[in-house]
């Protein structure tokens, strides 16, 4: 089985380049999702200052880049409570899921990536999030769901890195005799 991708410079979804801070255009129309799978102390309401929002996002991403995954998860969860409709909410949700995935907390990662897809279906992070939903099912040994979701990645996002990675994981499923 493939191991979880490391958070290192590279071109695969879920991998961070050192200079990657924001991966999609800011979103002003994001909606908060009740019951999202984040567990952090309630934060004060956002100040409304875009610089404060960006600084909070950058601090959370910096923790992820430094390999401080628990701290990163805490910061991204706090960010999403403070800025649920913020410009970087879709990115923050993705990286929160990634922080769970790389620490092998696959069930919470799965729920977080599903939350991103429900709240931000048009995000540029959607292909990578759907791929990680498939990867999470794979790691949870839910082979039929993994196969189904990875097939959706190939269908919905052909000719993308996410589709190529999904095809690779589908091949692994077949070679391992799971499908």
Question: Mind explaining what this structure looks like?
Answer:
56% of the residues lie in helices and 0% in strands. The protein has 179 residues and is mostly helical. The chain is elongated, with a radius of gyration of 16 Å.
Fill in the keyword field for this structure.
mainly alpha; 179 residues; 7 helices; elongated
Largest sheet: none
Order of helices and strands: HHHHHHH
The number of distinct β-strands equals: 0
Helix content: 55-70%
The pLDDT mean sits at 80
Low-pLDDT stretches: 1-45
- Number of helical elements: 7
Secondary structural class:
mainly alpha
Distance between termini?
14 Å
Entry summary:
With 179 residues, this protein is mainly α.
Topology, pairings included?
Blueprint lengths: L49 H16 L3 H14 L6 H14 L3 H14 L6 H14 L3 H14 L4 H15 L4
